[in-house]
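For anyone still unconvinced, we reproduce a single protein record, the chain in one-letter code, the fold tokenised, and leave readers to judge:
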Amino acid sequence: MDYTPTVRLSLSFLQIPDELVEHYLGRSGFQCPDLRLTRLVAVATQKFISEVASDALQYVQFCILLLSF
């Protein structure tokens, strides 16, 4: 018996759109016709933002812990 999911989750809303990355790369003077490089920059940017947000959350949780004493 094969299982067919009725709901499919899509994480595409978590990705930075190519047009947005190309816009900011263009504003900085970077022009590259290769879409793979644009997407590599998008992934690196997404990882950086994710790490900053994670560090901020850990810091807030630590501050709350200190204030509870």
